[in-house]
Design a protein that fits this description.
Strand 1 and strand 2 form a beta hairpin. It contains one helix and five strands. Strands 1, 2, 3, 4 and 5 form a five-stranded antiparallel beta sheet that branches. The radius of gyration is 11 Å and the shape is globular. The protein is mainly β.
Length: 64
């Protein structure tokens, strides 16, 4: 699966604070992570599936 259904993205929220998520894309425009701006975390997308676990999230750099 190369792209995520945008209806699914609209339903997903941060598992920590329940705020909305922003799609992060790689240089080719493919989804790479869902970002929570409030918590400054990015949840990875693997094989087209968002991994919404706090233990898998990475901290967002200040410029993202």
């Amino acid at each position: 699966m190369s792209s995520l259904d945008h209806r699914l993205i609209d339903l997903l929220v941060c598992p920590l604070c329940k705020s909305g998520l922003r799609m992060l894309r790689d240089g080719d425009g493919r989804p790479r992570a869902l970002a929570c701006v409030a918590d400054r975390l990015a949840f990875p997308i693997r094989d087209g599936i968002p991994v919404m676990l706090e233990s898998e999230a990475r901290a967002l750099p200040v410029e993202d």
